[in-house]
Description:
Tetracycline Repressor, domain 2; 85% helix; single chain
Amino acid sequence: MTVRTGIRRIYSESILILFVSLGGGIFAGSVLGTEGMVDAFERIPGLLLLLPAFLATRGNVYGSLGARLASGLHQGLIEAELSWDRRLINAITASFINGIYISVFIGLLSWAISSVLRPEADPSLVTLVGIMLLAGLLTSVVMIIGLVILVFAGYRYGLDPDNLVGPIVTTLGDIFGVVFLFVSIMVVGAIV
């Protein structure tokens, strides 16, 4: 394969998913701009602080899972089908656990930083950790299912999973991260 052929292949496989990713980012931004989210940011100290970290870690944790899937598919260690495969289950389990732990850590860290920067606002540890735990749980499930299905389907259709993982993780992370953060704010806000 020549360099020119390789570039064309990467571009042709990536362009559609990049446009979908762009649309997903715009959708996520529009959810952030809703009246409910703006009110939540004003009402719950520390919430705006945790948002960038939460969205970034969706990409970090599930980007690693996508890279493992792509490598496993390329090396023939993982079949492009949903079956009980020890390597696949281990990768999924590790990503799920990392996604939950990092979400709780973000809640704790946001509470600590908010307490130092704005002690008069009195951020609630239970609220921030509860929001992050629920949002982390919901996004973990959707990210894992969506990533596995889309990468496997793309591979079966002859697409290179390395060209798909980044945009898929970014799109799913932004869309479902923001939506489930909003859902978690509503649920935890109603309980606490």
